[in-house]
Each structure stands twice: as C-alpha cells, then as structure tokens.
Amino acid sequence: MITIDTAAEHARLTAFADRFIEALAARAPQRLPVAPDVRVTENCQAIAHGTGIWRTCREVRPGGHHFVDVERGQVAWWGVVEELRGSGLLGVRLAVEGRLITEIEIVVVRGGSYFVPEVVLAEYPEMHAIVPLENRVPRAELIAAAHRYFDAINRVSGEGLAVSPDVVRIVNGFLDSAVEEANLGDEEKYLALDVAEQITQGHYSYIERIRDERFPVIDEERGLCHCVVMFDHPGDLTRPNGVQEFGAPNTMVFFEVFKVTRAGIGQVWAIGASLPYGAKDGWS
C-alpha cells in the first residue's frame, strides 16, 4: 500500500495552481505542463487552451484562496483578475495526473449586483484552518452535507439542516447572511437571518432548481467541500419581500465551498457567473 505524504502532495498541487496563475498573468499558456488532450472550459463552454481569459487578462491581483484534494489530485483557486474591461472574479479547477494538467475548468464573474472583489481577496484563516481530528467528518459526509444544503433550497425548507446560526455565506464577495439588522433596509432584512431560516422563509425561492452537482475537490483535513453546481432562475419568481431577483431567465454556474465539521456547516462561499437559461455545465 502506497502512503501519500499529505503535506507534500498538498504543496505540490498548490504549486500547480500557482503556476497557472503566473502563466495567466504573463499571458503565456505555453508555460503550463498540460496533457496533449487537456480538456478546458470557461463558464461551461469548451474552449481551446490559451483562448478565452488568456487573451483578455492583464493582471492577477495578489492573494486568493487554494482548495486542494490530495487524494484525487485536484486543486482549485479563487481570486481576482484585471481584464481589458475591468475587474473579474476568477475560479479555476485543475486536475493533475503525474506532472501534467489534464483538466482546466474556469469560471469568470464579470460584474453584477453581487460583486465585491476585495472580499474575495481577504484572508480568512478560519476557513483554511486544519480541523482537529475529533471534529472532522469523512469525505462522504462532507459531500452529503453540501448535498443536503442544495436539497433544502430545492425543497424550500431548512428544517433539520445542520448549519451554524451565525454561518457566514458570501456570494461573489457579497455578505449574504449574518448581517447586522441595524444596517439593513426593509427589503434587506432577510440578510440578518441565519441561512436555514432564509431557506425556510423562501428567500431563495427565485431559484427554480439546483442541478448537476459535482464535488471534485474534497479536503477532509480542513473540512472543505468544493462543489460545482448549476442554478436555474426562470426570472419571474420573487422573494417573500416581493423583490424580483432577475426579471429575465438565466442559469448560473457556481463554484461553492462549504466548511464542515461535526457541528455542521460553518461557512459557505460561492462565486458564480450568469449563463443562458438551461445551460449545461460542460462536464456532467
């Protein structure tokens, strides 16, 4: 039986993500060790390696977050880029086999009502902290916790969902829960609710369906589950406060990360981009 040096493999995969970011900043895709048949998507569309954001990126801002799956040889990175048209949130997932990158999945968020790049770049040591052994949950339970969360939104019921009352949910850098009520207007009061109550009261009811869940990056040591998931928004559904979220149909692809311990879900981060309604994820 081969024993993996977890720390060394974590560092090796992190280095692959860093090489990607350095090459992107230099607009030099040829610097990456990619497999001859490397598979690439950007916002769910299959593209050739070196196209898409490689043509428009002018800078990668310092900072960002790594998520690593030592067992499966996968790594994701979130951060902020400067393109020809301005700032964008960038999520990248790489699959690594040996010394080659075999998969590159890119999500780029170019503006929107929820768009706070500085928050995405902020340091959150508690998100990346190693979970004590007695509080860890196994890989299957990390995936199950995320699946229960998505299922709760689909069912419009947070009953029994194991989330902390003060769980931090951040969407494209926008704080979407646990906000001080005194700072909120009437249409924003739901932001002061905990996530389970937001779900039960229907504040995510503008989402018609969550589908095509994938869980490519799991880090048991840190209690992290990195998902890729599709949200369908028909455009005519409203929140309980009467706010119509979109007014036109769209589907959004999300990179979503859950911090999970035996106490339940402690943090939820998401970055997502809008696509035509009914879009496929390019991988399922």
Describe this entry's structure for a reader.
With 284 residues, this protein is of the alpha+beta class. It has helices at 6-25, 53-56, 117-121, 125-128, 139-155, 195-200; strands at residues 34-42, 45-46, 57-60, 65-69, 74-83, 86-97, 100-109, 163-171, 174-175, 209-219, 224-233, 250-261, 264-275. It is globular and about 50 Å long. The two termini are 32 Å apart.
Q: Given the structure, what is the number of helices?
A: 6
How much of the residues is beta strand, in percent? 35-45%
Please name the CATH topology of the largest domain: Nuclear Transport Factor 2, Chain: A
Biggest pleated sheet: 7 strands, mixed
The low-pLDDT segments are: none
Keywords:
single chain, 6 helices, 20% helix, Nuclear Transport Factor 2, Chain: A, 284 residues, globular, alpha+beta, 6-stranded mixed β-sheet
What's the short story on this structure?
This protein is of the alpha+beta class and 284 residues long. Helices cover 20% and strands 38% of the residues.
Secondary structure layout:
Blueprint: H1 6-25, E1 34-42, E2 45-46, H2 53-56, E3 57-60, E4 65-69, E5 74-83, E6 86-97, E7 100-109, H3 117-121, H4 125-128, H5 139-155, E8 163-171, E9 174-175, H6 195-200, E10 209-219, E11 224-233, E12 250-261, E13 264-275
Parallel strand pairs: 1-7, 8-13
Antiparallel strand pairs: 1-2, 3-5, 4-5, 5-6, 6-7, 8-9, 10-11, 11-12, 12-13
